[in-house]
């Protein structure tokens, strides 16, 4: 019976390190972030930190992946609570266009930009970036209810996520919430006619509480 | 008659320093870039470099501004050569969505991300970023021929530029040219019905060589 709590403790330590890594990157940037500093913030010994993540690259790719998972899980859970009807498209567009306005994207941005001048970091991040991007795309396709075999549907979803990343960037140096909400309204208006009818009426099988 | 060449020489030195600053930032990142290194690359003495740009912040904001000006001038000049007719919208969308796929955006991205954890740099860049953003918006409004008093027109133009920045980001770690072209095709299709008829037929007063 010793094994379970130890595994549990190990998972908690790992999660604390990843959270601390994101905090450090957002506050200090990539060059200011070290394994020692992350360990200190997480309240974990440097040895334990290095056991989980031998290098700064390991820790940072772990953090990017962890945050992407958390965020996508949150997106799915919030999406399941959405009403059907005409407000649905707007709610989904709002959720998608807000996806990159928080600290997760901020941390990822630091790391991506550092990777553009650091070959080792790029090699670590490139496959991860592709996987995280595919997962975001899959969730957006589900939420918008599009059929990817329809002409242009795939590109519309991609454009929505690229726009979301552009809006994340616009939110980096100043609070862009108000402008982003206005763009989201217009984006929903532009998308609406291209979405299949099923989306507008909610996902089939979803029952709305009366 | 001594005055003119000296001013000319000074302008040339300034331009060489700004070009070297961009090169340095793109290759080495913000933290790797120093005034000494930029001066060396530009083949300018450190004293002369410091005469033009007392601090690294001055030089970098000069570089961001210079590149934005060059890019917008190029956009205008290319736009004046565009044909009228249905291919026009696609050509303009292509130009706008390619706007941030080059080294100018790459350099700006390094600096913006650095500014997110550096208050002095942020104070220098924030007003510049706003000015450059407004200018890009103005050119996009002209090119697309929209009337900003039409409902949603302003947001459509903003979304186009935010999408372009998101696409610039997607081009940071790998060559995204092909995917970007497909998104541009779909975006032109979505925009077309929202644009005033005048746009589709070219800017009034533009004569097409026969």
From TrEMBL, chains A, B:
Question: Which regions of the protein are recorded as binding DNA?
Answer: 34-53
Q: Which GO terms describe its molecular function?
A: DNA-binding transcription factor activity; transcription cis-regulatory region binding
Keywords tagged on the record: DNA-binding
Family matches, as PROSITE patterns: HTH_TETR_2
Q: Which residues form the HTH tetR-type domain?
A: 11-71
Q: Which InterPro entries match?
A: Homeodomain-like_sf (IPR009057), HTH-type_TetR-like_transc_reg (IPR050109), HTH_TetR (IPR001647)
Give the protein name, as stated in the record: TetR family transcriptional regulator
High-level lineage: Bacteria, Bacillati, Actinomycetota, Actinomycetes, Pseudonocardiales
